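During the reporting period the student researcher (J.K.) took over the structure-prediction task from the postdoctoral fellow and processed the backlog of single-chain submissions. One of the processed entries is reproduced below for the supervisory committee.
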Amino acid sequence: MALSEADTRTQLIDPILHARGWTEDLIRREETLGTVEIVDGQPRRQTHGRTDYTLRVKTAAGPQPVAVAILEAKSEDKSPTYGLDQAKVYGTEAKRLNVPFVIATNGHLWTLFDRRSAKTTPIPRPMADFPTPQELRDAYEDAVRIDLTSPAAKPLAIPYRGWKNRITIP
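J.K. obtained the following structure tokens:
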């Protein structure tokens, strides 16, 4: 019997991510994407889905790790590309994260979609070859044309305090 998506994440994906150098402080699980709307004078997040993982890298510029990729997990019996379209939608909706890469996996194989080139990895690769934080950092820096150690990158690493501090609602 194939592992469910939840079991695939905990038994297959999490151990590989950790083995490839992704520490817990660089992984955000089930991050809700979407915008904030005002309903009856109160903020409410419009949910358009949750990413299974948002992968982040540390910078010297600030306290918040910078999001570099969204990872969509599916049960192990699915094709590794099965969740790619879903992850692409999350990537589009996650413009606030400025994430150029979306990745889909079934826990055994993974495939990457690069939003810049609109190209997908031609052949799914084994999870043992999943990109390390440094590899995705290098690809991110190339994609957005910024060195994460430069002063220009500082705004990316400072937590956004939210709309509340910037907008007064009557």
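The committee noted the following: Confidence is low (pLDDT under 50) at residues 163-170.
J.K. will present the remaining backlog at the next meeting.
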